[in-house]
Each structure stands twice: as structure tokens, then as C-alpha cells.
Q: What sequence folds into this?
């Protein structure tokens, strides 16, 4: 309370000017105020039997509702798994996607989503004072568990952010592979920075820069709405730009999905190399066969791999150093650092007027030394975290280079498990698929026509197909 | 890493893939486990500590909901029921009536009701309040400080990263248990 009153005192001078008309009244009341300490005016003594009304307390979302959301998430993920892995139905996926967009996007208005929950989990792991609510933890874990078993079915039709981008993808164009690889590093950086800033308690940047939340809430300030509109506009041509070049949760999903046992596949039986699916993925997530293609000598590849392994420590070191240097800009996300910088700046430059931050600090009653010490602590933690973040990114770059120099033998057209969103766009293009056979009836017997002569195609066993479905 | 290079290509890839798969899944398990140990059953909501708020006005401008989910509330047992309410009337108000030009609140969101001489009751019309804290500041400085700001949970969408919280100069926002979602200045139970 003492702090409060001091605050009142300093604002009083400012307000008193405005209140010049009633100033005389105030002088009289001033003595009352001092005597009363907290209550400047005595508690009224009503004679008409007046009862104090209660202050209303409208309730927040109940725990029950939060558990309903968990249930909806589970049902959606299960249905998405069924539609993607078993039915391989683009129509079904699309319908579910629309539902998720409506429910998790426009009805729940975004929070809390698994993408943002990364930060809650990171924050709680590194801070004694914060514990992650159970439902949030479940929101974080469930899509990852599904990804480890069925692939990124969350991305296919449950994620509201993915859905809004998928829905606007009308004229897909291809992005050159090199650019894809280059931009593909950003999500790692975003993930690392998000975790670092959350675990140091600096802020939840992944939520802060969510480009679509403004649409879900049907309002928001102009820069963010413009950012979101930009993403959607780009998304008309470049499939899911946020998913591919930013989403930090996509990285985690990819790590899980890479080893998933039951993942959506382009063909339910055997790839006959008809090449019909080749252009069906707007995200470039189909691995193409490379047998018989001109490839460099294995020796060359191994030697390059050796070189990369040699420079790996260097990459990690350089990355760490850069991360360490980036600590000051990262620190500017922190409230304490912001206030400390402002207070110091005002001290050095007396012409600078107080802003709300320094003013609030002045009313708070903390000493400047305490503030600066607190800000330094944040900077120290971020500088240390910067080493780890940068080192991690160096490792990511090294792995990317390694992956590019290790060409795997690829026999058939297959989805790239870590990145594939299981959107099922490629499924209906496969002619060896009974489910989608009607698509091809008009084209007649395609398989022999579209065989590539360099590949030996095992004869299709129709009996086996029907037995499976 | 280097010793695996000698093995035949496909096997090495398979081995690597299997190991990394197990690693990834165990890492997820570990994070889940740690999270479980540090979980809390109750959900949280954002709330303002009225004792540290400095009525800066950011609440009106930085909420993702418009008008803001932050509203002024009245703690009746603290209020002086003044005829001249500093939160209600502008400085230099021509007369002490509810005419618009006399009111401090830019949206006219305060209701003034006569109780008995000389006492007047002041209520907030929440649909009109934008959380600008003008009345809060005046009541704080000249009155009993019975007006103060609270996040109203029928309006707040409980953002994971409250947009006002990160702009609040006095760091007055915190996440409180959802079953005690308000920080009121008086004890409601004493009123009963
Ligand atoms: S990549 Fe990220 S944003 Fe895109 S659908 Fe998956 S989780 Fe959602
Ligand atoms: S299911 Fe995967 S590979 Fe097929 S089109 Fe969709 S993202 Fe591409
Ligand atoms: S949590 Fe969101 S809706 Fe609630 S007060 Fe903060 S910004 Fe406004
Ligand atoms: S932003 Fe903080 S200090 Fe400013 S009015 Fe809101 S709660 Fe009070």
C-alpha cells in the first residue's frame, strides 16, 4: 500500500493542474486524506438500509470446457489418421480441415494451440514459478504422439493455421529446391529462439507473431492483420508458407513423423512408376526415384561427408558465437531490460521525457541498482542461451549439408515422411489405387503406357489389392 | 558418427534412422514426463494486480479484443459515495449533473444513482467501458481508489501471450488460477 500511495503522490501534481478549478476543495480535503491514510472519504453511514452490492465476477472458460477441447482434439486427430492412412481421402481430409478451421480457429479463437504450447512447456521446465496446466501439456503432446505413429496428421486437417493456408492454395507454383533448403533453416531458428525466450521468461514470441490469429479473432492491430493478409496472399501461390518456412512445431512433428510406422502413402499397393503423382504435391514433399539417374561417384560423396564432419565443430562454434552476439537484440524483448535501458537513457540525456515505462518504474519504488542488476541477469541468461541456440543452428546447417551430400537410393515415388503434411492431395492421382480407380476408368489401362523403360515393374496382383481394402 | 561411415550404405542409413527414431521418441517421452511432474491441474487466466497498476491507459489500446477485455470495477465497500466523484466528473465540470460534458469517462460508462442525501452510488456499465483507466487514476489520486481495473473473463479470450501483459509498464499482469480469477480490493464474503 505504501508503494501505491507514493504512486498517487507523484501523479497528483500532474493531475492537480488539470483540476485547478477544484483545487481549493482539495486543499480542504487534503487533511482528511492524510488522516484517513487509505480512505480519503469516510465510509458512508446509510440510514435507509442500503446494502453494498457485490462486484460481479463473470467466470472464465471452465475446466470442463478445456477438457472438451482436449477431447475434440483427440477425436479430430483420430479421424485425421483414419482418413489419411486408411481411407487416403482428400475429400474427407478437406472436410475435417474445414471443421478444425471453424472450431479451433474461429470458435476457440486460436488459444491455446499446440504450436504456442511449446513455449508453455519450455517455460515450465526452466522456471520454478510456472507450472504448465495439464490441458496445455496434453495439447502439446498429443499431436506429437500421433505424428510418431501416423505421421503429421495434425498438419493435414487439425491445425487451424495449416487449414487456413491450405484453403487458400489455389494456384500452386513450385519453389526451387535450393531456396526450399535455405528457407528451411528458418523454422529451426524460430523454434530455438522461441524456446530460448520462453525458458528465460522473456516472452512468448511464437504467439506474438502468429500471423493468422487476427483473422480468427476478426480483429487485431493493422500491422499484424497486414502480415497475415500477406501470408495468405503468398499462400495462394506458394503452398502453406508459414508451415514450410516458419512453423516451429512442424520441426518437432517432423522429428516424430520421420519414424512413423503407419504413414499416409501415395499408393496403397505398389508404385508402378507411372509418374502421375509427380506434380501432385504443391509442397514438393514427394521423394522421386533416382535409380538409373546420373549420380556422382560414391567416393566423392563420402569424401564430401568427411569434409562436412570436419567442419562440423567449426559450424557449431561459429553458430554459437553468432548466437551469443545476438543476445542484446533478443534481450530487447524483455520487459526488465526495456525499462532499464529507458531509465539509463533518460539519465544520460536529460532532454528525454519520461515515458510510461520509466514513469511506472519511478512509482514502483525499486532502486535503480536493483533494476540494472535484474536486467543484467536477463542479459547473462540470454547470452548463455545464445551460445546453445547458435550451436544448435550450426548443427542444423551441418546436418542439412550432410543430407544434401548423402543421396539415398530411392526406388519408388514416396512421400517424404518428415515434411509431408498428409494432406492426401497425391493419393487420388495414383492409378494403382482401388479407392481412386474411378478417376482413371476413362483413361483406360494406363499402367503399361506410363511405365518408364528404365524401370522394371512387377506385375500388379489385383487379388491382393481387394484383399487389403 | 565417423565409425558408421565404414558400414554398407543402406544398413548404415537404416541403423541411423532407427537409432534417431528411438532417440526422438524417448526425448518426447522425457519432455512429457518432466512436464507431467511440473503440471498443474487448474488452468490459469490473466489478471491485473490493482495494487501495482499505474493507470497508464495501455489496457484500452493493447487488448486483442476491442473494446478491451479490461474494464473498470467498483469496490462498493471502499467507495465514499461522494456527491462530487472525481472519477465521474471532469475537472472544471460546469455542474454536478450527469450531462455528458460533466463526465470524465470518454464513453459515459459510469452510472450515477442517488441513494440518500448526500450519497450517490457509482456503477460501471461494462459494455461501454473501454478500460482506459481515466476514472481509475482520478479516483486513485483524489478519492478512495475504489475504481480499479480487472480483466473481465466473459470478454477475455485468455490469450496464451496476453498482449496487454507484455506492454504493461508496471508488470501488473499475472496468470492466476482460473477458479480464483479476480484480484478484488475488498473481501466479497464480508458483504454477505
Ligand atoms: S506445419 Fe505448423 S502451422 Fe503448418 S499445419 Fe503443421 S503445425 Fe500447423
Ligand atoms: S500428402 Fe504429403 S506428399 Fe502428398 S501431396 Fe500432401 S504433403 Fe505432398
Ligand atoms: S488475454 Fe488477450 S483478451 Fe485477455 S486481456 Fe489480455 S490481450 Fe485482452
Ligand atoms: S497496462 Fe498495466 S499499468 Fe497500464 S492500465 Fe493496464 S494494468 Fe494498469
A:
Amino acid at each position: 500500500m505504501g508503494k501505491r500511495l507514493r504512486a498517487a503522490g507523484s501523479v497528483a501534481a500532474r493531475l492537480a493542474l488539470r483540476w485547478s478549478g477544484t483545487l481549493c476543495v482539495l486543499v480542504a480535503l487534503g487533511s482528511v486524506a492524510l488522516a484517513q491514510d487509505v480512505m480519503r472519504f469516510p465510509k458512508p453511514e446509510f440510514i435507509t438500509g442500503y446494502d453494498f452490492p457485490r462486484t460481479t465476477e463473470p467466470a472464465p472458460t471452465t475446466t470442463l470446457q478445456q477438457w472438451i477441447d482436449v477431447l475434440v482434439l483427440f477425436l479430430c486427430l483420430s479421424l485425421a489418421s483414419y482418413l489419411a492412412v486408411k481411407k487416403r481421402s482428400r475429400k474427407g481430409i478437406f472436410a475435417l480441415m474445414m471443421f478444425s478451421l471453424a472450431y479451433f480457429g474461429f470458435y476457440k479463437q486460436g488459444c491455446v494451440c499446440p504450436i504456442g504450447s511449446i513455449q508453455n512447456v519450455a517455460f515450465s521446465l526452466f522456471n520454478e514459478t510456472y507450472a504448465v496446466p495439464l490441458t496445455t501439456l496434453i495439447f502439446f503432446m498429443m499431436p506429437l504422439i500421433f505424428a510418431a505413429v501416423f505421421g503429421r496428421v495434425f498438419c493435414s486437417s487439425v491445425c487451424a493455421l495449416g487449414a487456413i493456408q491450405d484453403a487458400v492454395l489455389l494456384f500452386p507454383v513450385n519453389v526451387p529446391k535450393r531456396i526450399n533448403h535455405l528457407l528451411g533453416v528458418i523454422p529451426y531458428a524460430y523454434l530455438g529462439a522461441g524456446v530460448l525466450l520462453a525458458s528465460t521468461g522473456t516472452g512468448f514470441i511464437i504467439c506474438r507473431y502468429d500471423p493468422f490469429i487476427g483473422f480468427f479473432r476478426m480483429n487485431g492491430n493493422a500491422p499484424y492483420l497486414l502480415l497475415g493478409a500477406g501470408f495468405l496472399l503468398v499462400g495462394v501461390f506458394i503452398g502453406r508458407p508459414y508451415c514450410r518456412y516458419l512453423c516451429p512445431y512442424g520441426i518437432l512433428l517432423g522429428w516424430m513423423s520421420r519414424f512413423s510406422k503407419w504413414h499416409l502413402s501415395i499408393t496403397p499397393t505398389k508404385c508402378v512408376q507411372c509418374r502421375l503423382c509427380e506434380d501432385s504435391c504443391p509442397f514438393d514433399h514427394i521423394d522421386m526415384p533416382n535409380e538409373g539417374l546420373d549420380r556422382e561417384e560414391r567416393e566423392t560423396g563420402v569424401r564430401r561427408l568427411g569434409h562436412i564432419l570436419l567442419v562440423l565443430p567449426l559450424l557449431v562454434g561459429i553458430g554459437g558465437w553468432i548466437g551469443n552476439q545476438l543476445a542484446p537484440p533478443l534481450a530487447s524483448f524483455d520487459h526488465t531490460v526495456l525499462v532499464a535501458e529507458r531509465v539509463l537513457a533518460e539519465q544520460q540525456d536529460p532532454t528525454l521525457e519520461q515515458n510510461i515505462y520509466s514513469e511506472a518504474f519511478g512509482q514502483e519504488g525499486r532502486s535503480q541498482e536493483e533494476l540494472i542488476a535484474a536486467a543484467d541477469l536477463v542479459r547473462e541468461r540470454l547470452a548463455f542461451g545464445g551460445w546453445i541456440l547458435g550451436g544448435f543452428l550450426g548443427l542444423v546447417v551441418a546436418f542439412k549439408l550432410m543430407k544434401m551430400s548423402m543421396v539415398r537410393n530411392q526406388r519408388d515415388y514416396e512421400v517424404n515422411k518428415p515434411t509431408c503434411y498428409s494432406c492426401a492431395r497425391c493419393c487420388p492421382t495414383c492409378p494403382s489405387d482401388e479407392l481412386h480407380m474411378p478417376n482413371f476408368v476413362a483413361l483406360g489401362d494406363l499402367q503399361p503406357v506410363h511405365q518408364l523403360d528404365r524401370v522394371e515393374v512387377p506385375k500388379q496382383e489385383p487379388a491382393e489389392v481387394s484383399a487389403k481394402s | 558418427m565417423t565409425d558408421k561411415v565404414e558400414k554398407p550404405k543402406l544398413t548404415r542409413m537404416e541403423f541411423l534412422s532407427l537409432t534417431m527414431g528411438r532417440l526422438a521418441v524417448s526425448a518426447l517421452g522425457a519432455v512429457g514426463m518432466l512436464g507431467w511432474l511440473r503440471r498443474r491441474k487448474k488452468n490459469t487466466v490473466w489478471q491485473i494486480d490493482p495494487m501495482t497498476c499505474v493507470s497508464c491507459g495501455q489496457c484500452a489500446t493493447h487488448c486483442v479484443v476491442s473494446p478491451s477485455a479490461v474494464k473498470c470495477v467498483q469496490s462498493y465497500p471502499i467507495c465514499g459515495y461522494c456527491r462530487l466523484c472525481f472519477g465521474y466528473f471532469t475537472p472544471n465540470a460546469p455542474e454536478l449533473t450527469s450531462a455528458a460534458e460533466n463526465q470524465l469517462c470518454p464513453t459515459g460508462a459510469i452510472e450515477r444513482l442517488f441513494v440518500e442525501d448526500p450519497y450517490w452510488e457509482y456503477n460501471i456499465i461494462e459494455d461501454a467501458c473501454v478500460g482506459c483507466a481515466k476514472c481509475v487514476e482520478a479516483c486513485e489520486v483524489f478519492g478512495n481508489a475504489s475504481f480499479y481495473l480487472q480483466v473481465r473473463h466473459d470478454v477475455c479470450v485468455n490469450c496464451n501471450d496476453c498482449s496487454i501483459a507484455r506492454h504493461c509498464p508496471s508488470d501488473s499482469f499475472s496468470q492466476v488460477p482460473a477458479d480464483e480469477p479476480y484480484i478484488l480490493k475488498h473481501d466479497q464474503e464480508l458483504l454477505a
Summary: Chain A touches chain B through 96 residues (CB under 8 Å). The beta strands of chain A are 132-133, 286-287, 414-415. Residues 144 and 253 of chain A are 6 Å apart (CA to CA).
